[in-house]
TrEMBL record:
Stretches assigned to coiled coil: none
UniProt lineage: Eukaryota, Fungi, Dikarya, Basidiomycota, Agaricomycotina
Protein name: Anaphase-promoting complex subunit 4 WD40 domain-containing protein
Keyword NAD: no
GO biological process: cellular response to amino acid starvation; mRNA transport; positive regulation of TORC1 signaling; protein transport
Biased composition (Low complexity): 218-231, 286-305
Keyword Transferase: no
InterPro entries in the cross-refs: Sec13/Seh1_fam, WD40/YVTN_repeat-like_dom_sf, WD40_PAC1, WD40_repeat_dom_sf, WD40_rpt
Gene3D superfamilies: YVTN repeat-like/Quinoprotein amine dehydrogenase (2.130.10.10)
Keywords attached to this entry: mRNA transport, Nuclear pore complex, Nucleus, Protein transport, Repeat, Translocation, Transport, WD repeat
Amino acid sequence: MIQTGLIQNAHGDLLTDASYDFYGLRLATCSLDQRIKVWQLDENNTWIVEDDWKAHDAAVSKLSWAHPEFGSIIASSSFDRTVKIWEQAASHSDAAQQSTNVNGSSQTHPGSGPLNSRWVERAVLSDAKGTVRAVEFTPHHFGLKLATISTDNMLRIYECIEQPSLTSWQLVEELDVQSLASGPSPAYLSRAHTVALSTPTQTHATLEGTSGQLTQALQGLQQSTSSAGQSRSGPGNREADGGWCISWCKDKYWGEIIAAGSGTNGIIKIIQINARRSTTLLTLSSTSNTATSTTSGTSNLSTSGPAPTDTTDPRAASTSAPTFAITSVAWAPSCGRSYHLVATGGRDGHVRIWKVKPGSEDMDPENMAEGEGEEAKWTAVSVADFDQHKSAVGRVEWNITGTVLSSAGNDGRVRLWKATSGNVWRPAGSVGVEQMDESTQTESKDVDMDA
């Protein structure tokens, strides 16, 4: 039986995200109304508003709780191109303390919302050149870090260098997700020059200060990317059609690895964050349910369908099948498995589950991106592909053991997926968001875990 509850009139506009804290006893929600609300679960299993405040100057897109060992901390991303760090203060008087943004300026932010919110703005991260669509703290064993992705297609990693004040955050990595290559990156795609690439929100990027050869290479890449994007998306707003999402690998052994998707190309890249050189370990394509291993410049296909077209090449995209953006990605907790599970949801209405196998266990995690031969390759195969939503999927999320997947779609339903004893993934029930009569509601809550 699925237990459900209803929070009436949670926000004044469309809800964009909901995130539980580590213990599942508090819930943070955000909305197009620019506000964040924190809810507390009381002894009657009723969600009560604990705090409510105006957080951004535009719609709030995503929320993420830090691990409780760092305190009560929330990061929020917004369409105002900023990420903000919030900390729960000890008292109402703390709500008028100073906070410092990343460029060093100091501002006082008094509490807002009813009766002075107890959540204090500690820092503002404003490096994005487009709307920030996702934010997520790293697993706690890597320290107090977070990742963001925005519509300029840049994945940014920040680290808090001043604890416990939380006022100083350093940008430690900045990667162009769509251009990130495997192995040594070509010079014209290095971090120093990615700012010159045209993106959906930077249509007039400058090429000043670059060499003639570099300028020619960049212009050619921009033209091919632009023509490919037009053929995929057609007329319209690419930001409205695209998807930008991230999810960290929860396993400490393999180092800092993140799954990231950007734009309308329908692919997810498995990226290893490395201080010396971040690389793409694996590319998951929703077009033909294929995975391409790119470690050490090699290619290995694991597929449950026909041979794929290389969707990572913008020039090939114009002749391939139409692609749909991936709007959500979720990396499952490993819980002792010898492989990983990564789930995606897309605008094509599909929920996909990937079985991802790392390279040889004998490989040193610090050097696995530089390994040679078959042992260094990461491989993946699609083990499930569901289209029951029949409309865009906005969110996928795993339970704490990585055994049950939930998905929310524009059909107004939250659906559950669970593997049988034979590791065959099946539907495990659904809940309708709309109000239903008692008999219909009871029927929709029945779960057949043995299906």
